[in-house]
Amino acid sequence: MRILILGGTTEASELARLLADDRRFEATLSLAGRTVSPKPQPMPTRMGGFGGIAGLQAWLRDHAVEAVIDATHPYADQMSRHAVAACEGLALPLASIRREAWPRQDGDRWIDVATPQDAVSALGQDPARVFLSLGRLELAAFAAAPQHHYVARTIDPPGDIALPPDIRFVFDRGPFDETKEEAFLVEERVAVVVSKNSGGQATYPKIAAARRLKIPVVMIARPDKPHGEPLESARAAVIWLAGQLAHRPSSTSRRSV
Ligand code: NAP
After folding, report:
1. Which atom, in ligand 1's list, is nearest to the CA of 135?
2. What is the atom index within ligand 1 of the atom nearest the CA of 55?
3. 234 and 199 in a common domain
């Protein structure tokens, strides 16, 4: 059975690992191409946008895909919207691995905002030391608040985007460690953290460290992503795929369609 996995997450990588040697499935992992050197994957991987809904549909048809797993990041809402529309149009089964948001805990000092632009406003007028734990494409919004000192952690250099003048980059990728995150926040004398509510374990240590240090976190809200059949994990996706395999039309009737 031919499968497309829309990836870029820990869950997508885990699913790729689970399916790599499973001869029932012939899967391709699709990455947006946001990172220059993504982690090596144990299955065929394609990179870059499809060209909107029509482009995705053409790719699915050309590759005779029979089921799609959306394992994109909770903030990658456009890709999910396109996946829902494309699969509806082609009557293809679609399941979506949905990562729970981090719940607010006692002691968290979160300031909830809707967008990166609102996060900029929430920082206020007085110069502050700000830790930006965001994707590089979201950093441009902070050029509107040049009075702050920023330290930004990204996987790759930011490339050609507008940036505030006083910004230093730390290049790293999760998973992160709570003790090291606390040391980092103290060392950098961070007064406020800006983060997405990505969920999962890999990037949570900075949130726990901020709580212990009583540092406020400006938390950018999740988009409301459309989805297919909701799944909790990569393992649940394998079970769902096995169900699709069991219920798909026989190869004879598929050939005659
Ligand atoms: P997006 O806004 O949902 O997608 C924008 C476009 O990128 C899509 O329309 C599609 O282009 C392409 N795209 C996205 N995911 C793709 C995939 N898996 N395979 C092929 N093409 C893909 O997503 P985004 O711009 O990548 O990111 C939005 C937010 O998610 C940011 O906050 C970012 O930090 C976060 N995030 C993304 C990733 C990731 O791997 N994408 C990982 C971690 C965090 P076409 O319309 O041309 O098909």
Report:
1. 34
2. 48
3. no
Q: What is the pLDDT of residue 250?
A: 66
| Same domain flag for 54 and 149 | no
User: Residue 232 has what DSSP assignment?
Assistant: S
Token pair of 252, please? 């004879």
Task: Please check whether residue 57 is in contact with residue 33, taking contact to mean a CB–CB distance below 8 angstroms.
Answer: no
* Cβ 155 vs Cβ 173: under 8 Å: yes
* 49 CB within 6 A, ligand 1: yes
Full residue range of the structural domain in which residue 12 is found: 2-100+223-256
CB 34 within 8 A of CB 57: no
Compute, in angstroms, the gap from residue 8 CA to the centroid of ligand 1. Answer: 8
Are the C-beta atoms of 61 and 92 separated by less than 8 Å? no
Same domain for 235 and 208:
no
Cα-based angle 17, 18, 19 (whole degrees, multiple of 5) = 95
- Over residues 150-181, the pLDDT tens digits come to 999 999 999 999 999 999 999 999 999 999 99
Lowest mean pLDDT among 22-26, 37-41, 194-198, 206-210: 37-41
* C-alpha 48 – ligand 1 centre gap (Å): 9
The tokens of 113 are what? 């905002």
3-state secondary structure of 173: coil
73: Cβ below 6 Å to ligand 1? yes
Do both 215 and 229 map to the same domain?
no
Q: Tokens 């632009």 identify what position?
A: 117
* CATH code for the domain of 51: 3.40.50.720
Tell me the per-residue pLDDT of 12-53, one tens digit each, with 9 for 90 and over: 999 999 999 999 999 999 999 988 888 899 999 999 999 999
**116 and 214 inside one domain:** yes
